[in-house]
Design a protein that fits this description.
Number of domains: 1
Largest sheet: 2 strands, antiparallel
Number of strands: 4
Radius of gyration: 14 Å
Strand order of the largest sheet: 1-4
Strand content: 15-25%
């Protein structure tokens, strides 16, 4: 029997540096005012669905970039943390 515990729930992910130490840097949707593609604020991170994120990681790996995908919690996704 299939489980429906998470039916209708969509996981949202952010792209982070794979070898990052604290503080974690999140990928922005477009470069910030200083030209950097990274932010320390998870609420400003570009959001990915699972398939879109894995596709992005594959293309980044082809270019020699080591990135990782990290799930964003509901507080960040809903904007309640802002």
């Amino acid at each position: 029997m299939r489980g429906y515990r998470n039916a209708g729930r969509k996981e949202i992910y952010a792209i982070v540096e794979a070898d990052a130490t604290q503080p974690m840097r999140y990928l922005l949707a477009e470069p910030g005012p200083d030209g950097s593609p990274w932010t320390l604020d998870p609420s400003k991170a570009r959001r990915f669905s699972g398939f879109e994120g894995f596709d992005f990681l594959g293309r980044a790996l082809e270019r020699g970039l080591e990135l990782a995908m990290m799930p964003l919690d509901d507080v960040v996704v809903d904007g309640a943390g802002q």
